[in-house]
Amino acid sequence: MPKVAVLDMTGKEVGSVELSDAIFAIEPNISVMHDVVVNHLANARQGTQSALTRSEVSGGGRKPWRQKGTGHARQGSIRAPQWRHGGVVFAPKPRDYSYTLNKKVKRLAMKSAFSGKVLENNLIILDSMNLESYRTKAVVEILNAIGANDKALIVLPSMEDKIIKSARNIPGVKTAQVNTLNVYDMLKARKLIILKDAISKIEEVYA
Hints:
The protein has about 210 residues and is an alpha/beta fold. The chain folds into two domains: about 5-45 and about 100-205, 3-Layer(aba) Sandwich (Ribosomal Protein L4, Chain: A), CATH 3.40.1370.10; about 50-95, no CATH class. Helix content is about 35%, strand content about 15%. α2 crosses α3 (about 105-120) and α4 crosses α5. It is elongated, with a radius of gyration of 27 Å.
C-alpha cells in the first residue's frame, strides 16, 4: 500500500496514511483517461451553433440571369453558397454531442488518475481545513504552506461552504466533493489535495 504523509494547515507533517492499492497504486491507463476526458468535453458542449443553408436564406427566388448567352457562368439563385449573403454549405445545426461510456471505463480512469498523482508525488493529504470565516486569504496561506499554490484541486468529504466560497476566487484552484470528482479536473490540476476524511469515502466509492 502506498504510504502518504498527512500535513496540517501549516504544512507540517502530522502523520501518515496508507492508501488502497486498488485505487492509488495501479498502472495508470492513459488511453482510458484520454477517452474519459474526450467524453467529458463532448458532454459539456452546448451544441447550439447554427447557420442558414441556401434554402433558409431570404431572397433568390428567381434566376439572376438567363441560362445562356450572357457570357456569365450559369446561376440558379443569388443565395447559392458562392454568392455574397448566400447560404452555408453543410451548415452546422443544433445537435447533442453527448454520449455515454461504460461505468467500468469511468472507474478505471478515476483510479488511473489517482494512481498517477501518487506516482508523480502530486497527491497531498490534508489533516483538516478549518476556516473561522469566509476568507480567501486564509485558503491562499494554506495552499502556500503546503506547496500547492498553482492549479490545485481540493477534494472535500462533504459540502463545506466556507472552503468552497473562500477558494472560488483563487485562479487555478477548484474544489470538489467526492461524488462530483471527474478525471478532467484531476488531470488539469497540478496538485490534488484530499482532506483526510475524504479518503475513506473515495475508497468506498471506487473500490
